[in-house]
# Entry
Amino acid sequence: MGETVASIRDLTMRFGGAEDDALKGIDLAVETGQITGLVGPDGAGKTTLIRILANLLSPTEGSVAVLGGEPGTNRFDLGYMPQRFGLYEDLSVIENLTLYARMRGLPQSEWDAAFTRLLDFTNLARFKSRLGGKLSGGMKQKLGLACALVRTPKLLLLDEPSVGVDPVSRRELWAMVEQLVDEGIGVLWSTAYLDEAEQCEVVYLLNKGELLFSGNPSELTDEVTGRVAVVTGFEGRRRRLLTRMLDREDVIDGTLQGRSIRLLFDRPAPSDPIMLDLHADSQMQLVPPRFEDGFINRLGGGPDGTSELARRYRMIDGGDGCAIEAKGLTKRFGDFTAADNMDFAIPYGKIYGLLGPNGAGKSTTFKMLCGLLTPTEGSGAVAGHDLRTAGPEARRSLGYMAQKFSLYGDLSVRQNLNFFAGAYGLSRGEAHNAIDSAIEVFDLGGSQNRSAGEMPLGYKQRLSLACAVMHQPPVLFLDEPTSGVDPVARREFWTHINSLVEKGVTVLVTTHFMEEAEYCDEISLIYRSQLIAQGTPDELKRRAQDVSPGLKAPTMEDAFIALVEDRDAAVERAA
# Structure
């Protein structure tokens, strides 16, 4: 066992005016030489707990020891990386490092050596003059980590450091932290990615301020052994079948995996697909559980399959035409080409994914198709409207959910809904009905008079989707819609999206959650401004096996990384 560098005993946190305690009698310990994971749904209390350890909040009750003393007494030995990018976007990389060196009391004689070490460690040396606001999401997170490490700490607090970071950067970030652990640092890592939690030695699972589990991740995973199965070979549409399975009482969670469906049962999984009212040609195979299965099980299961939003949505009949079409879309900013010759067509009633590392050109392509950026070359159309000539008409045909919370934080939930109803041209009667329906469907009744900026991330995401669909458009643009959102909230979101697609809605989505990519009917993988691969999730996984024969049963994340690395190798061979 390592040295205990942080401990909490019987900790309670109560905010004035709140009905429930934010934290309720929590016990937790962080030791050196290991990564301690902190997981839980939005509003569980993860950030509150980390802020108490960082001496940014004082607990209502209980004891807290950090580095052998009261929080704040050994602040130079503590590194803290907040959930949101807490650096200065109008300062360069090296200026941010300099500022943090001053704040952390690092002697000026040690600056050059520390900066060289950190820039090399994070691979940011080439970008030391770039402004923080101009960095990609992955680079921002790396800079945030570098600033937290500007004076080597004994305890490192990381509040969801990999939010909005692509799989390649996420693995790099994880490798950096593991290197620090090998040097004897204690790390507390809060995360929305449960595959990261699975790699921790100890995990604490919070829900509504209570501690539901603490221990090795395998202990939670073992609780659902024999209860997870994959269904293949079934007839009909996979989304329709997933909805039917999730509405069963014995199924507590389900996700799509390409053409397969992965199910978690509340009892031992049935061995015969006929027991699930499936066709006799369907196959059912028990598979090893994952930490995420144990997580969902402890929380009482995921949402049902039926979407009330989709039930109220109009039927979209686009015929045989294309809902979204890109023909040679290219965008240049000066000498820099952000997106180069993007070409694809998306039929109605499909989900199309744009995947790629941070800065690859996904959002640029996305914004051109939304009419938010004018292409340098090429053309794009949405629901039959040419974006160059029919801007307002095209925009009324789509709903847009931005990468970052883009609603008005100072307005209430109802005021935001009212504003967007007007922006989409709804009449007074239509707006009244749409707003009341959105509040009911997304369970916003208790928050309708609350400022949108004060809501937990999961509720912000609900409100963003509500604003995007209130005019019932035939096309939805979703730019990393669930970034930073917990697995349960992500499932609620995709229940709505899958059901809308069954009503004929077309969805263009970007995401860094590779399990979400499995919901796509087709994917374009964009890398360094170019489209390097297209196909269904299963086709991309097979292609990844072709370029990397060592992959036996690749996940979408494995496929993503293998195809990106293969592209790099091809460019290197051609050089």
Notes: The mean pLDDT is 90. The chain has 19 helices and 23 strands.
